[in-house]
Each structure stands twice: as C-alpha cells, then as structure tokens.
Amino acid sequence: MGENEKKVVFFGGKGGVGKSTVSAAYALQSANSGRNTLLVSTDPAHNTGDIFGVDIGGTIQQVRPRLAACEIDSEKESKHYLAGVKENLRNLVKPSMKQEVFRQIDMAGSAPGADEAALFDRIVSLILDESVNYDRLVFDTAPTGHTIRLLTLPELMGVWIEGMLQRRRKFQNDYSRWLGDGEAPDDPVYDLLNRRKERFRRVREILLDDGQTGFVFVLNPERLPIMETKKAVHQLSHHDLRVHTLVVNKVLPDEVDGTFFRKRKQREQEYLEMITEWFGDQQVIHIPLLEEDIHDFDALNEVSKFLSHVTV
Questions:
Q1: pLDDT score at 4
Q2: Is 186 exposed, middle or buried (0-12, 13-18, 19+ CB in 10 A)?
Q3: What is the DSSP letter of 216?
Q4: Do strands 61-64 and 37-41 pair parallel, antiparallel, or not at all (unpaired)?
Q5: Residues in the chain with pLDDT < 50?
Q6: Which residue among 9, 114, 123, 251 has its CA within the 20 to 30 Å range from the CA of 151?
Q7: pLDDT on residue 190
Q8: 222 and 265 in contact (C-beta within 8 Å)?
C-alpha cells in the first residue's frame, strides 16, 4: 500500500469487469497491512458475501481480522429512511395534519430516485459516523452511470436543501412581519434541514479532498469498458472529482497458445496502448487473467498483491 493513507476509496466501473473482486482484494490488502478496514457494497447485485464465502447483509460484520463488510440494500434503506423521516416529523406537525403528511411521505417513497436518496443517506452516515471506528472505508459501487450519480449527489442534494431552507426563511420572515414583533418564530423543520445540509457539506468536502478520498476505476482491456471509463473520468472531472487510478483487470498472459488466443492477445495489446494514450494522467495497474475463479481468501490474497502499489 506504500505511503497511501486515503481514508475513503471508491471503486467504480462497467458491470462485469470484476470490480467487486478488485475492491474486495484492495480491502483485504488494506487489512493485511494493519489498517482497520470497512468494505461497503452499494451494488444492488451484491456478491461481496460470495467472494468471502460468508453471509453479510446490511449490517456491518467482521469477516477477517481488521476487515469488516456490509452490503447495503437500497430498498430496505429506503423503508428505514422514510421511517426516520416520519419519526423526525412526528412532533413537528399538527395531529390533524399528521395522517396527510405521512401519506405524502409514503407516496414520495415510491417516486423515482427515492431508493437512491436513501442509499446516499446511508453512505453519508457511514462516512461521517463510522470513520472513527475504521482507518479506511472502501466502497464497491454499482455500474458506472449509477456511480457517477451517487458521487455527485452531495452537490445536488446541497443545492436542493438550500432551496428548501430559503423557502423556510421566507416563511419565517413573513410570519414575523405578520406578528409585527420582529422576532423570528422557532422552526424545528428549518433546524432539521440545516443539520442535513451541514452533513452533506461535510461529506462533499471529504469527497473533494484529495488527501482523504480516492477514486479507482476498474476496466477490462476491451473497447466498451475503455470507452465507458473515458466518459466517466471526464464526467467526474466536471464535478471536481478526479480519478487517480485505473485497474486493468483480466489481462491475458504474455505467453498464450493457439491462433485464437494469439489474435486476442494482439488485439488486447492495441487496447492496452489505447489506455496508455488516453489515461496519461492516471496510474494504471494491470491484473492478469487468472487460471481459476476467486473462490477463497488465498486466491483473493493473490489478487491483492497486484494492488500493493495502488496510490489512488
């Protein structure tokens, strides 16, 4: 792991490139080097538990010495999130309005983006609240488009909450003028929104801090993953999020037998040169195609050795 001391590391990439395996190997490498590490899967198609050979689920579980993991279920998080919102509002709304307010919240829970918002809220909690318990948090995210959306949510949610706060301030000012005493009324909703805005601000600050957070993209030496990675790196840069490292997974060995594999290797070499040309600003790590699937910790340890020089 060298001198790399990033607290939070996100792994992204196209579906099927081996992102979960690489992020699990990186987390294991981090734990083996003495860091208390938490691996978090936000991919709806969880397979972290399959990689480690244990049932994990949504609560944090210890899977190895200094290595814990959890798999976030966005649907369950959405229900938990809405229950929390209701609890927060339970004493803030009039009894006569409570039923209608809760009905509106349930309807909002069915709206597009609700699961995503709940997932984001859990990630915010993990980064802000669990950081004290772990030296490093490693996030295995969903395929590229979802990852970009997730990483840009602190910026979007911050703008949305600021709009809500402005409306609450106007309401307070109007109410104060109506009373004519110049005193702003207590507004628990405003206070609640302000606390959430502050949490989003803190997480965005962490994500934008090169000293605290790193972004790694995993790809295969094939045309589509390369094209998708190029777009992702470009899109994230527009939000001031810089991808420092690329992991090129499943690279064919230099010595291959047969016409089929020699042609594949020749084509692959062209793609590797394309990666070198297009991603000159990123560190590029190669992991070879292994003879067997990753089915136990010994095999995962073999992969983790290739990640010992990742600097994110």
A1: 59
A2: exposed
A3: E
A4: unpaired
A5: 1-3
A6: 251
A7: 74
A8: no
DSSP 54: S
Structure-token pair, residue 16: 């099927």
Beta bridge partners of 212: none
Tell me which residue has tokens 């690489």: 22
| Of residues 312, 246, 251, 311, the one with CA closest to residue 276 | 246
First to last CA, the chain: 10
pLDDT at 108: 62
Work out the number of other CB atoms within 10 angstroms of the CB of residue 112.
6
Token pair for 181: 């005493």
pLDDT digits (tens, 9 = 90+) for 213-230: 999 999 999 999 999 999
**Cα–Cα distance list, 231 to 23, 43, 199, 240 (Å):** 21, 20, 29, 14
One-letter amino acid identity for 12?
G
| Segment (H or E) for 89 | helix 74-89
Sequence length of the chain is: 312
Number of neighbours of residue 10 by Cβ within 10 angstroms: 27
State how far the Cα of 282 lies from the Cα of 227, in Å rounded to an integer.
15
Cα separations (Å) of 200 from 10, 98, 152, 213? 17, 27, 11, 15
On whether the CB atoms of residues 56 and 70 are closer than 8 A, the answer is yes
